[in-house]
Amino acid sequence: MNTPSIYHAALYMVVFGLGTTPILWMMKKVTSYPVLNSFRKFQKYLAHILLILGCILVIRSMGLGIPYLSPEFNDKETRVNCCE
Q1: Which long-range contacts (CB under 8 A, 24 or more apart) does 38-46 make?
Q2: pLDDT tens digits, residue range 39-64?
């Protein structure tokens, strides 16, 4: 989008693809190791962990005043006088 011509954009995409190819190849090789079997077991619980974290973030954003979980928002303390 920001390149001067379509040829520069195509060149950028080719260089980006060549730059990411070694990392993608290494990730494919690393996933075949038996050490990552424990990571596959962890993936079962990953959805539950993300759901719990999402609920915590929603509760925090509500400003209910629960200590360490949902702090109160004081608009009086955060107001800034500009252009004095």
Answers
A1: none
A2: 777 788 888 999 999 998 898 888 78
